[in-house]
Amino acid sequence: MLVLGAAATAFGDLPTAQFLLVGQGARSAAMGDAVVSNCFDYSSMYWNPAASVFMANPSSGLGGAQLPAGISSGYLSFAGPVNPNKTVGFGMNLIYEGANVPSYDIAGNKLADLNTFDFAYQFALAFKLGEHFSFAPEIGFVAMDLDNYFSDPAFNLGLSTLYKNDRFSAGLVFANMGGRLQFTDEKGNTIGDPQSQPQLMRYGASYSLLKNRNLLISYSHQDVNDDSAASWSSFGAELYLSRVIALRAGTRSGSDGSTVQSFGFGLNFPRIVLEFAQTMSPSALDGMNTSTFDLQFKFNSPSARAYTAESTPPKEEEGRIFKRAAAQPLDQQQPLVAAAPVTPVAPVPVAAPAVPAPVETAIQPVPEADRLTVAVQELTGKGVSAMDASVVSDFLRDALTNTKTYNLVERSSMEQLLSEQKFQMSGCTSDECAVKMGKILNVQRMILGSFSKLGDVYYISVRMVDVEKGTIMSAETVNAADMKDILSRCVELSNRLSKNPGKKSDTLPASQNPQPTNTQSAPAQSK
After folding, report:
1. Which end of the chain is more exposed for a tag (fewer CB within 10 A), N or C?
2. Which of residues 318 and 170 earns the better pLDDT score?
3. How many CB atoms lie within 10 A of CB 347?
């Protein structure tokens, strides 16, 4: 329909290049396009390039949609922060659309179908202003091929801005402000007057609800110059059932009174995201439903590449990088001052070496059969996203496992056991609640705490609770000036918690502890 509209308006009063108005991304389609203020993924290049600087990881993706009337639309994009401090973002994308358009002569006789192909390339740089603001200028070009009619490439300009804090975000976008498209025929003859692009303004706001901010509600609005029929308002919602599964729904109302409902889901894995959306057009436009698919790849953040001072070969995966970083503090703990060698020939006693500054002693592994069982509760996020807090929780679990001092309960096992007992894990932040959880999980120790951000500094604060006694055994806090230091801080934190890990034999009643055997024979009694 949009290609037909483009062909019809290429030489008319309405703006041409209508394919630029096709929303990109399955997530946005599922939410009714209400993503102007919350597009923190690869689709940010289309909806709001200023959002790219707030993305947790750079990502690249491709999406496709089968539109009515045999029209196919595609989108290829890369976006994300490009420097460790995440103050500069970069993005580029390609939008294309193709179709076979039926054609007829003035007598109504069927002619050969017209093959159309339209495309646009766009580039943007995003800059962060302070902690919460960003803006992004955008430049690109657009061209159209309507079979026998061609347009010379025209510049496509845009400007976007975004405000984001812990729960609220708002965005404003101006797009398609470039030059006009001049069409010519296959002989190079000029056809009609130059046609304007669909210049538009979008704005929207979003708010995250619930304790873990896993429910998002959003509103967006679009106004198109000289084409009021392309203007709309939309509402959307997104609910994360877990770190992997997201459900979405939305509704979009056009200026003509028509309403389009939509729904979809997303599957978020550590490096790959799969998304699907289905739109349901009103009954008056039967057969205009659209299905959209997305495949997105997430890359390591530029602030998370140097986990240790020693560079890691690129071929190593994240799990191996983590294990290497976790073991490194133990491997690097060498004596600062070596004792002078004492030879048997020299009768002069050798003075003891000077005592060095206190050095953290190496963690002594505990035999697996004698290790206490520990569970790590999901850390509470304060000033950070629930997703970031959950990732740091996994970092801490892996670091504790690598100390070989505790038996760790896997998160999936925790969720299963607590679900069977209908115990709500989210919101359990008090020591009393941790004790209840620990008894359900049948562990001796519970670790709980928070991952927070104050100013530009990140803090990880945890405490270890004795499940049987209900007392706090230890409390530790570490801080990091940048996200790249979070992993090493988790290793440091696990080493602190493992200094005095205790053993199962220490917690057994006296009657169950093995008693030393007296090997000395008793004196014989005289008869």
Report:
1. C
2. 170
3. 6
In this prediction the pTM is 0.57
- CA–CA dist 446, 463 (Å, integer): 8
Which residues share a beta bridge with 191?
183
For the chain, which residues make up each domain, given as ranges? 2-298, 318-328+365-504
User: Residue 335 and residue 320: Cα distance in Å, rounded?
Assistant: 27
Distance, in Å, from the CA atom of 135 to the CA atom of 419, rounded to the nearest integer, reads 44
Amino acid present at 243: R
pLDDT digits (tens, 9 = 90+) for 147-186: 677 778 888 899 999 999 989 999 999 998 888 888 887 7
2-298 belongs to which homologous superfamily? Outer membrane protein transport protein (OMPP1/FadL/TodX) (2.40.160.60)
Q: How many CB atoms lie within 10 A of CB 253?
A: 16
| Mean pLDDT value of segment 291-318 | 56
Cα separation, 446 vs 453, in Å, equals 23
Is residue 375 within 8 Å of 437, Cβ to Cβ?
yes
Give residues with Cβ within 8 angstroms of 316, minimum separation 6. Answer: 324
Across 371-418, the runs of DSSP E, i.e. the strands, are 372-376, 380-382, 406-408
Cα Rg, the chain, nearest whole Å: 31
Helix (H, G, I), strand (E, B), or coil: what is residue 339? coil
Q: Where are the beta strands (DSSP E) in 351-498?
A: 372-376, 380-382, 406-408, 445-454, 457-466, 471-480
Cα angle for residues 490, 492, 498 (degrees, 5° grid): 100
- CA 117, 78, 89, 170: dihedral to nearest 10 degrees? 70
How many angstroms separate the most distant Cα atoms in the chain? 137
Q: Please state the φ and ψ torsions of residue 512, each to the nearest 5 degrees.
A: -95, -5
